[in-house]
Amino acid sequence: MFGEMIRDNMPSPNAASPLGTRPYLKSVLRNVIVNAQVGLHPWELYPERPTRLCVNVEMFAWLHGAKAHDKDLYIDYDPVRNAIITWPERPHTPLLETLARELVEVCFANPLVDAIRISITKLDIFNEADGAGIEICGERSELLPAGNVNRKNYDQSRSE
């Protein structure tokens, strides 16, 4: 049931979205379930009772100019997955927004990524809800400070 609920609630980036209607390539990580020490509620502060999270990440590359015809164009989701699966070992984090902002930086470390949508949902947090969480959605220029990573640096870091 929960998997269906999440899948059904993942909006298209073209449906009343700040991402607009331009053509894109999208790479996704869907319904990644991970435990983490996160939250402000008193019951979330006990290390022996981690919070179960569901993470969804969508990374978009606009298909314009040379990108539109690049047969080798792909967005690698492994760095994002690798970041998420470290969360069980990290110290307590008060806010989901902190985790999401860190994922924004991981996503945009890839210079091919032009926009992202990230949602993090706390599962089992309230008896009357399937989950409670946050979503960040936007383009690189809106979500990152100036001085974004360049392609040369990214390619070098991936080959190490």
Automatic annotation (TrEMBL):
Residue ranges of every copy of the Dihydroneopterin aldolase/epimerase domain listed in the record: 27-138
Coiled coil: none
Alphabetical list of InterPro entries matching this protein: FolB_dom, GTP-CH-I_C/QueF
Protein name as annotated: Dihydroneopterin aldolase/epimerase domain-containing protein
BP-aspect Gene Ontology terms: folic acid-containing compound metabolic process
Domain of life, per lineage: Bacteria
Species, as recorded: Acetobacter fabarum
Alphabetized GO MF terms: dihydroneopterin aldolase activity
Pfam families attached to this UniProt entry: FolB
